[in-house]
Design goal:
3 helices, mainly alpha, 0% strand
Length: 74
């Protein structure tokens, strides 16, 4: 076997692997899962915003009011 034959086999195997990954990624069966996974970073952010709102409603309002009053005195 020549080195060029090994290279050709490598190229063919690489192309087959690439096509298999593309088929897996764009398969209609997995579309719903990938759409849900794409929303995960935003869901985590939304939960933290809601949690901060629950914890700090009165505390942040007091700080905001104090900062606003200071700004009006200047």
């Amino acid at each position: 076997m020549d080195i060029n034959v090994l290279r050709q086999i490598g190229v063919v195997l690489g192309a087959i692997a690439f096509l298999a990954i593309c088929w897996w990624a764009f398969s209609p069966k997995r579309k719903k899962r990938f759409e849900e996974d794409a929303k995960l970073p935003f869901a985590d952010e939304q939960e933290s915003i809601e949690e901060d709102a629950r914890k700090g409603d009165s505390h942040s309002a007091d700080e905001g009011g104090a900062k606003q009053e200071q700004g009006q005195e200047k």
